[in-house]
Design brief:
This protein has a two-stranded antiparallel sheet with strand order 1-2. The protein has one domain. β1 and β2 form a beta hairpin. It is 47% helix and 9% strand. The protein is mainly alpha-helical.
Length: 57
């Protein structure tokens, strides 16, 4: 059984996908073939992190 936090997270994720489905689809497909690297964290308008910046080792 899903708790309220899980439900809220899933609802927010679905909203993010609905806001910009083309970006989410493109980045997901690309990540399946290549490493996705960003110089900054990338968030949706409702603060869901889509991509984490690459940290220098």
């Amino acid at each position: 059984m899903a708790n309220a936090c899980d439900t809220l997270y899933k609802n927010t994720a679905h909203q993010s996908i609905e806001e910009d489905p083309h970006y989410v689809t493109a980045i997901t497909e690309m990540a399946g073939h290549k490493e996705v690297i960003s110089s900054k964290d990338i968030y949706t308008t409702n603060r869901i992190k889509l991509i984490t910046k690459k940290h220098d080792n």
